[in-house]
Design brief:
Elements lengths: L1 E4 L3 H9 L5 E4 L10 H14 L6 E5 L11 H14 L2 E5 L25 E6 H4 L8 E5 L1 H14 L4
Parallel strand pairs: 1-2, 3-4, 4-5
Antiparallel strand pairs: 5-6
Length: about 160
């Protein structure tokens, strides 16, 4: 799995706990503290090219935790194109989608054509609805990935 650095810790730990190799690349910000999208894709491509074993997942998190940095809808179009070309899945964590400033509207990865083929998007109710600690959320997207999570959660949460 590939995660930007810095990242929310569980984005790395979830893969590490399952024995996956973690590859990180520097997340660079511009003067307005937005993601430098050109450098993002350059650094991501370099990481993918140098990673052994082959990258299967890329995790993104915008608005970003811990920096609050944001991206444009075009960012997701480029990321989906790259995922199809390089044959990896995207996990988009939009936990802070509703907490933005200055009229910014958080784009969804599903605004990008073809995203359903290669992506899932995760959302939590705890941030937007002041439900800290409740661990209530949902995931939408690629049927294969959502199905895998459903099987795991069915066993982990059985009887709860």
């Amino acid at each position: 799995a590939v995660v930007p650095d810095p990242t929310y810790p569980i984005h790395s730990y979830a893969f590490m706990l399952n024995g996956a190799a973690i590859h990180k690349f520097e997340l660079v910000f511009d003067n307005e503290f937005k993601v430098d999208e050109e450098l993002f894709f350059k650094n991501l491509q370099k990481t993918i090219d140098e990673s052994i074993p082959k990258v299967k997942y890329v995790v993104v998190n915008f608005p970003h935790n811990p920096s609050c940095a944001t991206v444009t809808p075009e960012f997701y179009t480029k990321l989906v194109e790259m995922a199809k070309r390089e044959r990896f899945y995207i996990i988009s964590d939009i936990a802070y989608a509703d907490i933005t400033f200055d009229g910014y509207k958080t784009p969804s990865i599903f605004q990008a054509e073809g995203a359903l083929d290669v992506a899932v998007e995760c959302f939590t109710l705890s941030k937007s609805y002041n439900m800290a600690g409740w661990r209530v959320g949902f995931i939408v997207g690629n049927e294969k990935l959502v199905g895998a999570l459903k099987r795991i959660k069915s066993w982990l949460d059985y009887g709860m």
